[in-house]
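Q: Now give one record:
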Amino acid sequence: MPPVESPVKPYIIPVFIPHAGCPHQCVFCNQKAITRSAVQSPSTPQIEASIRSYLKYLTPNRKPVQIAFFGGNFLGINRREILRLLNAATPFVQEGIVDGIRFSTRPDTLTKDRLEILQGFPISTIELGAQSMNDAVLALCRRGHTARHTARAAHLAKAGGYEVGIQMMVGLPGDDDAGAISTGRQIAALCPAFVRIYPTVVLEHSPLANCYRKGQYTPLSLSAAVSLVKRLYLMFQESSIAVIRMGLQATTDLENGSILLAGPFHPAFGHLVIAEIYRDKVIELLKASGRALEAVTLRVNPKRISAMRGLKNENIHYLKNRFHIRHIDVTGDPLMSDHHISLAMDSEKVKLFAVTE
């Protein structure tokens, strides 16, 4: 099957509403630390000023432009607050400066009554924080909803004409690789437009931090998380579902370790996943050649050289050691498709899967 083309990447103007609408704290969550924001939602003047600030960096012809409410449970907020937030953002769409509004929400708060509040507002995309489709895992994580809530919410949102995205996590308490793959399959069956995949990390001041210190929780290693997310990525590709993010967004606090206690955080996590996919495809090519090779030249589209080489040339070192190759050269060829790679020895092309940035 042809690779899944990534959706056009929108210019996102984020509005953080940390913990707003969240009825309780999930075991893995320290939302205040992630967003580096005060717990209070921003005022209307603050929202308008922030949006205008982001618009200053908008380059010509960059489309689409979306205002995104992140960091809280949007449909769990009280009705008056939802209307205030939407009324602050909507004029920018009406003026033609912004194309639409998006938000993330818990599945159990996306109901028919809640969707009625949205009528008349230019909302284009709704993201559901499913995290898992295993009810036992959800209970251990204190999510307060079930897999059935996620399925129902996805159907309601799609029926309302909204683009639907679903977020999932790997390495959750009580979960394992088989469980994560099962969650992926169940999410794929809901046919979302896109998914995000987040590895579970242990944040200071989260309930999970206490479990980790007591030896009651062991996070995935970085290599295990990359391999598992790779399997999920390829599975979603087979279902023609775009994966628009893998790994947590890097922040100063995460990178300097001030809030990260343990777990598979890496600022280039998605790159690691894609690089491993490229490495696997080259392994297939080398095995298929059936020959001992002194030197190999790999041709890829210039934009994919970094993915082919791997972080710090890890792919090159691995391939040399495994196949006893003395020299491997990676060459950029603008005539190569984004999703192909070839060995110079026979120019045989092997299709790769779509790469999302």
